[in-house]
């Protein structure tokens, strides 16, 4: 990999590694970035040439210019898959008719009524947020 940040690639611990038509999930810890690859080469070279540290350093110097990433982040493919995944998520779980009773007083709230209440809360919060944004824009223009 070109570079990891805090042991993650683009914020992920696992990536989909595609080779031709085949694809498999790989843990980021199984992949080296350039720095990790050089550290591994240095460690192995020093183990192999324990009696000659100059040979260990030479092995690292020789390997350095040849280290090139062979796993590349495909931004377009990732964004396309993200959009496809978002499209597969259902945006509605059901309907609430006008004046429909969602839950009665002293009634135990089960899953479906709870989802409807949470959706209502989120809808009201979104309406308030939009109204606040519009009010700020009006004040800015006046």
Describe the protein's architecture and organization:
The protein is mainly α and 142 residues long. It has 2 domains: 14-88, no CATH class; 92-142. It is 50% helix and 8% strand. The chain contains 4 helices and 2 strands, in the order ββαααα. It has helices at 34-48, 53-63, 75-88, 111-141, and strands spanning 14-19, 22-27. Strands 1-2 form a two-stranded antiparallel sheet. α1 packs antiparallel against α2 (53-63). It is elongated. The model has no long low-confidence stretch (mean pLDDT 85).
Work out the number of β strands: 2
Q: How many DSSP helices? A: 4
Fraction in beta strands: 5-15%
When the domains are counted, the total is 2
Q: What's the overall geometry?
A: elongated
Query: Would you tell me the overall average pLDDT?
Result: 85
Oligomeric composition of the shown chains: single chain
Radius of gyration (Å): 28 Å
Biggest beta sheet summary: 2 strands, antiparallel
The percent range for helix content is: 40-55%
Report the end-to-end length measured between terminal Cα atoms: 53 Å
Structural class: mainly alpha
Low-confidence stretches: none
Physical arrangement of strands within the biggest beta sheet: 1-2
Succession of helices and strands: EEHHHH
Please give the structural blueprint.
Blueprint: E1 14-19, E2 22-27, H1 34-48, H2 53-63, H3 75-88, H4 111-141
Antiparallel strand pairs: 1-2
Helix pairs in contact: 1-2
List keywords for this structure.
142 residues, single chain, mainly alpha, two-stranded antiparallel sheet, 4 helices
């Amino acid at each position: 990999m070109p570079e990891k940040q805090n042991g993650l690639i683009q914020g992920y611990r696992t990536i989909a590694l595609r080779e031709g038509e085949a694809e498999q999930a790989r843990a980021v810890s199984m992949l080296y970035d350039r720095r990790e690859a050089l550290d591994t080469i240095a460690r192995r070279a020093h183990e192999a040439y324990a009696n000659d540290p100059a040979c260990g350093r030479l092995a690292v110097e020789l390997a350095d210019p040849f280290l090139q990433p062979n796993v590349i982040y495909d931004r377009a493919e990732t964004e396309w898959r993200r959009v496809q995944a978002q499209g597969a998520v259902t945006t509605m779980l059901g309907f609430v008719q006008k004046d429909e009773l969602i839950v009665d007083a002293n009634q135990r709230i089960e899953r479906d009524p709870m989802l409807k209440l949470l959706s209502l809360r989120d809808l009201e919060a979104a309406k308030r947020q939009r109204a606040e944004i519009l009010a700020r824009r009006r004040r800015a223009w006046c």
